[in-house]
């Protein structure tokens, strides 16, 4: 199967809508090494990785070198009983050679999807991004149309890099 063309969206982080977290849920930030396993469990349950070991490898590669930042930027959504049901990362990256915020790894485990948790989790991550950056970007793909629709509702806009991406965005907006 051919890999999908990555699509990018941007946000100026000036106006971030607020969506309250439903009763029975809370946020917390990454704290201990056990949280690396929690992150890996969530991203494995959402099928980003075939098994937890691969997710842990990615965590160690991407976040372990920046553990101080991870503790300020990796957000967990959990039930009041402490079950981690989602995560989002208010990370950073380079855009045109300038460090900006990056909305990264927004995931809610399947059994908790459809419970009005996405908007609160994303906007919490956007608020965290705003504490460190003036602008942000995210990476998505055409097959994530529901996510793209949600991001647009939250003020994200397409960042068109080339003609191929322009055509993909135009086809998405026709639908």
Attribute tags:
alpha+beta; seven-stranded mixed beta sheet; Aminopeptidase; 28% strand; single chain
Please, could you describe this protein's structure?
It is a single chain. The chain has 175 residues and is of the alpha+beta class. The chain has one domain (6-174): Aminopeptidase (3-Layer(aba) Sandwich), CATH 3.40.630. Helices cover 38% and strands 28% of the residues. The chain contains six helices and seven strands; from the N terminus they run E-E-H-H-H-E-E-E-H-E-H-E-H. It has helices spanning 33-45, 52-62, 67-73, 118-132, 145-153, 163-174; strands at residues 6-11, 25-29, 74-79, 84-95, 98-108, 136-141, 157-159. A seven-stranded mixed β-sheet has the order 2-3-4-5-6-1-7. Helix 1 crosses helix 2. The mean pLDDT is 94.
